[in-house]
Design goal:
This protein has twelve helices and nine strands. The protein has helices at 19-28, 35-45, 60-75, 94-107, 125-130, 142-150, 167-172, 176-184, 201-210, 241-252, 264-276, 290-299; strands at residues 50-53, 81-82, 87-90, 115-118, 134-135, 137-140, 161-164, 191-196, 215-218. It has a seven-stranded parallel sheet, sandwiched between helices. Strands 2-5 form a two-stranded antiparallel sheet. Helix 3 (60-75) crosses helix 4 (94-107) and helix 6 (142-150) crosses helix 8 (176-184). It binds adenosine monophosphate.
């Protein structure tokens, strides 16, 4: 007799999201929250600051957008105000800004909240006109936002929630001074969310100055190679592959190299070739004894 444990898949319902948001999620065709959503949504709903180590592709946007929509809905005292957003989402690029605002509109379609996106490289006038209408959520790139601040088109003194998305890329692109200028315009008391794929000292110091007792959520990107790994392809004929491998290792002075081959025989031949060229190497595969495999791994 076999006893089967019931399989419980996490459900959006358990996250305590309100009905208009649940309906939008269902319209989008999502049935199960992603890991970052499971972790981030309750923490953001709780009102605390959050530091998220997550890349695009993990469902991170919904992870912060869904609870923010809910908080803004629940805290909405008066209606939306002209040119005075309650939530500011800063992103490094116009593509990302546009994408995030798309998500805000998608997930907020059954809510009365108003959003808009601001980025540079396009005519400023349509943005200025849009800022003369009621607004709750502003998604922006830092430079163009400061242009609007300079022209007094936007008032950041009502921001209750700040999101810094892809903070590492913003710093890489030289936005740190702009970000600091923007931070100085925000009310002291607010909720802060910072997302970054990497955590350099610069990011840590930004986070230290920004976040108060933050929660921390971390997820790896799904099914993609790490951005930290450089990948190259060499197109060479079969007969030159072993020579090239040997040359690359010597030329770059690589100290620890893991090589995958298509066949067991190919692994043996490559290892022999490398040893002949005075490169310490061993092959492991299913035809080797466990002892030989353990020894090869230990030497590695
Ligand atoms: P992001 O990492 O926020 O850029 O999201 C990556 C993609 O995943 C987007 O196309 C989303 O529409 C999609 N997505 C986000 N959350 C879910 C979910 N819970 N189920 C299925 N797809 C999702």
């Amino acid at each position: 007799m076999s006893t089967e444990l019931p399989i419980t898949t996490p459900d959006f319902k358990e996250l305590g999201l309100i009905d208009p948001i649940m309906r939008a999620i269902s319209d989008a065709g999502y049935t199960t929250p992603t890991p970052i959503q499971l972790k981030a949504i309750p923490q953001v709903l709780g009102g605390g600051d959050l530091m998220g180590a997550a890349q695009t592709g993990t469902g991170k946007t919904a992870g912060f957008t869904l609870p923010i929509l809910q908080l803004l809905t629940q805290k909405q005292a008066a209606g939306s105000t002209v040119g005075r957003p309650r939530c500011l989402m800063l992103t490094p690029t116009r593509e990302l800004a546009a994408q995030i605002e798309e998500s805000v509109k998608t997930y907020g379609k059954y809510l009365p909240l108003k959003s808009m996106v601001i980025f540079g490289g396009v005519n400023i006038n349509p943005q200025t006109s849009r800022l003369k209408k009621p607004l709750d959520i502003l998604v922006a790139t830092p430079g163009r936002l400061l242009d609007h601040v300079g022209q007094r088109n936007v008032d950041l003194s009502g921001v209750e929630i700040l999101v810094l998305d892809e903070a590492d890329r913003m710093l890489d692109m030289g936005f740190i001074r702009d970000i600091k200028k923007i931070l100085a315009l925000l009310p002291k008391h607010r909720q802060n969310l910072l997302f970054s794929a990497t955590f350099s000292d610069e990011i840590k110091s930004l986070a230290d100055g920004l976040l108060h007792n933050p929660g921390f959520v971390e997820v790896a990107r799904r099914n993609t190679a790490s951005e930290l790994v450089e990948q190259t392809v060499h197109l060479v004929s079969q007969s030159h592959k072993r020579d090239l491998m040997s040359h690359l290792i010597k030329h770059h002075d690589w100290k620890q190299v893991l090589i995958f081959t298509r066949t067991k025989h190919g692994a043996n031949r490559l290892a022999e070739k490398l040893v002949k060229d005075n490169i310490q190497a061993a092959a492991i595969h299913g035809n080797k004894s466990q002892g030989a495999r353990t020894k090869a791994l230990a030497q590695f």
